[in-house]
Amino acid sequence: MKQVAVVILNWDGQKLLERFLPFLVKYTPSDMADIIIADNASTDDSLLFLEQNYPHLRIIKLDKNYGFAGGYNRALEEIEHPYTVIINSDIEVTEDWLTNGIGYLESHKEVSALQPKILSYRSKHKFEYAGASGGFMDIYGYPYCRGRILSFVEEDRGQYDDACDVLWASGACLFIRTSIYKQVGGFDDFFFAHQEEIDLCWRMVNRGHRIVCLPTSLVYHVGGATLSKESPRKTFLNFRNNLSMIYKNMPAAALNRVLFVRFFLDHLSILVFLLQFQPSNAWAVIRARFAFYGRIKTLKLQRKENLLLSLPHLSALISQKSLIFAFYLRKVKTFAQFRA
């Protein structure tokens, strides 16, 4: 058996596979890793394209579209490699992207997962929104990154080129020990897509696992290839899933305060969407909050299990400051400014 399974989840992504799979094949050592395509019941010609052009690659055919979370969970049930790399189909990898990442995990047995530095495919001098150079969390459950604060993305000037412990690694390109992924329960199927990797990583950190961003491994990410930034569906998933992961993982001492403040901040978001003439996104936030509370009984059971397995501490990787207030009132735009 090879050391690594590099797994792409595909759904109607033929054009992305045509563009980016050649880089993945070129820069992934065949003696180290198997490239595996997990197909979420695509309706385009993705499978035909793979059979005609990459017949040597393994394909896992799923019977329907299970989303990002459910699709990867089902694919990894069939993976026995010591390491798994979860990678989006819209990622351009670079030379040594894999060997540097796996080499780090091999020499740092206490690290359970890592992400590379992720730059924008469209603007290669800038970080990419989804992950940048490692993810963190503010006091009210809003994610941010080294290199990205809310909507502001920094230029990469080497300012975050040190290996660094993070709270979460981007699902766009996530290296993880396969046994750890399965041990902590993988992604939450309910999330379908968006922030499922933050929920997974938060569970891992709460249970004592280390997660690292390793900038010597570098990839470029298109981002937003499935849902655009303005998509009401994306707004719904982000708000619903964010509240769900907060409820599942936030320490008991902070949970009620965080949910109280988020009630007002989420309603402020509704107002902003209305003022921007985006009623569909405003309604998506309302629906997300109803969906969250409609599932509260299940979330309570998940929270109970998570707290039983968590170490009794509030992670230092969660800031005790508000990202929203810093960004909009103090005009903070960079990770370094926010963490100062």
Describe the structure.
With 340 residues, the protein is of the alpha/beta class. The protein is 42% helix and 19% strand. The chain has helices at residues 14-27, 46-53, 67-76, 97-107, 178-183, 196-206, 232-249, 252-275, 279-294, 296-309, 323-328, 335-339, and strands spanning 4-10, 33-39, 58-61, 83-87, 91-93, 111-120, 135-137, 143-145, 148-149, 152-153, 164-165, 173-177, 210-221. The strands form three sheets. Strands 1, 2, 3, 4, 5, 6, 11, 12 and 13 form a nine-stranded mixed β-sheet that branches. A two-stranded antiparallel ribbon has the order 7-8. A two-stranded antiparallel sheet has the order 9-10. Helix 8 (252-275) runs antiparallel to helix 9 (279-294). It is globular and about 55 Å long. 44% of the residues are buried. The model has no long low-confidence stretch (mean pLDDT 95).
Lay out the secondary structure.
Elements: E1 4-10, H1 14-27, E2 33-39, H2 46-53, E3 58-61, H3 67-76, E4 83-87, E5 91-93, H4 97-107, E6 111-120, E7 135-137, E8 143-145, E9 148-149, E10 152-153, E11 164-165, E12 173-177, H5 178-183, H6 196-206, E13 210-221, H7 232-249, H8 252-275, H9 279-294, H10 296-309, H11 323-328, H12 335-339
Parallel strand pairs: 1-2, 1-4, 2-3, 6-13
Antiparallel strand pairs: 4-12, 5-13, 6-12, 7-8, 9-10, 11-13
Helix pairs in contact: 1-2, 6-7, 7-8, 7-9, 7-10, 8-9
